[in-house]
Amino acid sequence: MSRLTLRQVRKSFKQTEVLRGIDLEIAPGELIVFVGPSGCGKSTLLRCIAGLEEITGGDIALGDRSLAGVAPSRRGMAMVFQSYALYPHMDVRGNMAFGLKLMGLSSDEVEARIAEAARMLQLTPLLDRKPRELSGGQRQRVAIGRALVRQPEVFLLDEPLSNLDAALRSEVRLEIAKLHETIGGTTIYVTHDQVEAMTLATRIVVMRDGRIEQVGTPRELFETPANTFVGTFIGSPRMALLKARAEGGRFGIEGSGDVALPDAPGGARALTLGVRPDAFEVVPEGQGWGADVVYTEYLGTDAFLYARLGDGTLLSVRTDPAAPEHATGSRIALRPRAGGLHYFDQDTGHRLAA
Amino acid sequence: MPVVHYDSEAVEGEALPPTRRRFTRRGAWISFLLIPPIAVMALFVVYPILSALAYAFYDWTGLRREGFVGLENFRRVLFEPPYAAITWNAFQHNVIVFFVLMVVQNGVGFLLAWCLWRELPGARFHRVAVFLPVVLSTVIIGYMWKLFFHPIFGVVNQLLELVGLGALAQPWLGQSDTALGALILVNAWAWVGFPTLVFLAGLQRIPTEVLEAARMETDSEWTITRRIVWPLVAPSTTVVFILLFIGSFNWFELPYIMVGLDGSPFGSTDVLGLVFYRTAFGNVSAGVQDFGLGSALAVLMFLFIAVFATGWTLYLRKRELDV
C-alpha cells in the first residue's frame, strides 16, 4: 500500500479554473473525505485522481509513481459513482466480473473474488439479477462490490449516498465505515454533507472555490476551525459569526451592548466571534448581549431558538428542551460560555490565536 | 367479490355510476377520433390489398377479368418459365440488396454515429450533412446519381481520372457487374442518415457515468465499444433493421429512376418491385401485361415481408426488453 501525494494540482475547463493548486498527502489506509459546497471542486479533484479528468498542472503520485498520463484503469483505483453506473445489460455477477476478466485473472479467481464480495455485501441471492431488478440500496451495494473485487489500492467514492433515502443513508454509511475497517484500503470519499464527513472520516478536507480551506480530523475541524468558512460549514445548526469590538476585556456588539469575557485576546480591536449554538446561554437581562427571539424549534431531545442581535445578525441557540419556551418576539440576553468562543480576524476570516 | 364505491352525489342524483358514464363518453371520443383514419386506411390500404388478393385468383385479358383459376397465377409466377426465372432472379437481387445494405448502410451509419457522438472535429456540421440526403426526394437523388455515373461526363469517372485512377473509370450503370452495386451504394449514401440518427440517439442515451465506470476498468476503446456501448445501443436498432428489411424487398423508386423498368442491363438490377410493375401494368418494351400474375406477385411479396417482418420484430422486441 502506498501513499497518495497531490502536489499543486490544477485543473481548468477552458477559461474556468476549477482547482487552484491542491497540495495533499493521503496516508495508506486513511479514509479521507472531501467536503464542501457544490461547485467547490471536490468531485473534479476526485475525478482527477481517478484519471477521468486530466490535470492541467501539478502532479499526482501513488507511492513514488507519478500518475501523469496513466489510464484510469491502470492506476490501481476503483470508483463508486453517484448514480452507481452499473452496466444495465449485465447481471450482478457480470457487473463484477467485467473488470476482473479484463485484468486477466483466472475464472476460478474471478469466481472466488465475486463470491467473497457477495458474501460481505449480502449480494449472494442477487447475483443473477439485472440492475433494473434491484432496489436503490442493492444497486449501491453492487457498485461497492464491483469496486471491492478489483482489490484496488485506492477506493474512490463520489457522493455514494446522495441517491438513497434518509433512512437507508445512515445504514449504508455505517456499512461503508465497517467495510473500511475490514478491508483497510485507502478511501477517498466525496460528499457535500458534513454529517457524512464527520461520521466517516479519518481526516476531512474542506474545500471552497478550488482551494483547500482546512485539512484535519473531524474533532480538529470542529474545535479549531481555521477560518470562518470552516467554522460555519462544519456543525449543525451553524456557528454564529458575530462582529464585535474588543476593548479592555469587554466585547461590544452594535445595538446589543457589551459583555465581559475572560479569555479575550489583548488589545482593542474589531474581530469576528464564532459561537456554536450550544455555547450560548440565556442569561438575565443586562448580563449578556440583548437579542430578540425570532423563532423557536422543539425537536424532542433538542430545542433551538433563533434570535436577532441589535446589528441584525441572526443566530441559533441550543436551549434546554425541558425548560419553558421563550415567546417569539420577546427580548432575551445571551452570552457565550467560557471556552466556547472562536476568534477570527474580521477582514481575512482567519482564526486568531487565543 | 369486488366492492364498488359510488360517490354520494351520483347515488343520489344519477342513474349511472360516474365511472360508467365517463367510460361511455370516453368511448364516444375514441370512436370519433378513430373512425376517420380507419376509413381512410380501409379505403386506400386494406381494400386494394384485399382486391389484389382477389385479382390474383382470376385469369385476366387486358383489363377484363375472366374465369376463376385458383392458385394457377401463383404457380406460374413461381414455377413456370419464363416467369419463374425472372421472379427468382429479382428475388435474389432483393436478398443481395438487403444483406449489403444491412452491412454497409447500417455499418457506416454506426461508424458515423460513433464519430458524431465522440464529437470529432466538424461533428456539428456533419450531423446535419449526414441526414440531408434522407429528406431529398428519391427522384432527385436517382437523377443526380445517374448523371454522376455517366460514363463520359459523370463526376465519378472524372474524379477517378483526376486522382490518377482513370483505369478504374467505367460505365457503372451500363454493365452487369457494377450496376446493382452502384445502385446499392447510392441507396446507402441517401439513407445512411437514418440509421446514423437512430444510433446516435441510442449512444447519447448511455449515461456518462456508465462509460466512465468502464474506463475505470479498461483502457481499450474497442472493448468498451464492443462490450458496453454496442449492447446498450442494440435495442434501438429494431426499427432500423425492420425498416431496412421492408425497404429492401419493396425496393422500387431508385432502380426505376436510375436503370428503368427492365432492370437493365440484362436484368442485372431487376428486383421484385420492378417485375411486379412490369407484369401488372405493362412496359413499353415488353408490352406483356397480366393483372393476375402481377397481383399474385404482389400478394407473395406482401406475405413474405409481413411474415418475416412480424417474426423478426417480435424477436427483436423481446431482446429489447431483456436489456
TrEMBL record, chain A:
Task: Answer yes or no on keyword Nucleotide-binding.
Answer: yes
PROSITE patterns, sorted: ABC_TRANSPORTER_1 (PS00211), ABC_TRANSPORTER_2 (PS50893)
Tell me the InterPro entries matching this sequence: AAA+_ATPase (IPR003593), ABC_transporter-like_ATP-bd (IPR003439), ABC_transporter-like_CS (IPR017871), ABC_transpr_MalK-like (IPR015855), ABC_transpr_MalK/UgpC-like (IPR047641), Mo/tungstate-bd_C_term_dom (IPR008995), NA-bd_OB-fold (IPR012340), P-loop_NTPase (IPR027417)
| Gene Ontology cellular component list | ATP-binding cassette (ABC) transporter complex, substrate-binding subunit-containing; maltose transport complex
What Gene3D superfamilies does this protein map onto?
2.40.50.100, Nucleic acid-binding proteins (2.40.50.140), P-loop containing nucleotide triphosphate hydrolases (3.40.50.300)
Q: Which residues form the ABC transporter domain?
A: 4-234
Q: Which CDD domains match?
A: ABC_MalK_N (cd03301)
Q: Which family does it belong to?
A: Belongs to the ABC transporter superfamily.
Specify the protein name: Multiple sugar transport system ATP-binding protein
Instruction: Give the taxonomic lineage as stored in the record.
Output: Bacteria, Pseudomonadati, Pseudomonadota, Alphaproteobacteria, Rhodobacterales
Automatic annotation (TrEMBL), chain B:
Domain ABC transmembrane type-1 spans what residues?
91-312
Q: GO:BP terms for this protein?
A: transmembrane transport
The record's section on InterPro entries has:
MetI-like, MetI-like_sf, UgpAE/MalFG_permease
Question: Could you list the residue ranges that cross the membrane?
Answer: 29-58, 95-116, 128-145, 188-207, 228-252, 291-316
Write the signal peptide boundaries.
Answer: none
Q: What is the lineage of its organism?
A: Bacteria, Pseudomonadati, Pseudomonadota, Alphaproteobacteria, Rhodobacterales
Look up the record and report any one GO term of the cellular component aspect.
Answer: plasma membrane
- Topology class, membrane: Multi-pass membrane protein
Location in the cell reads: Cell membrane
Give the family, as the similarity comment puts it: Belongs to the binding-protein-dependent transport system permease family.
What is this protein called in UniProt? Carbohydrate ABC transporter membrane protein 1, CUT1 family
- Coiled coil in keyword set: no
Specify the species: Wenxinia saemankumensis
Q: What is its main location?
A: membrane
Q: Which PROSITE patterns match?
A: ABC_TM1
Q: Which UniProt keywords apply?
A: Cell membrane, Membrane, Transmembrane, Transmembrane helix, Transport
Q: Does the keyword Transmembrane helix apply?
A: yes
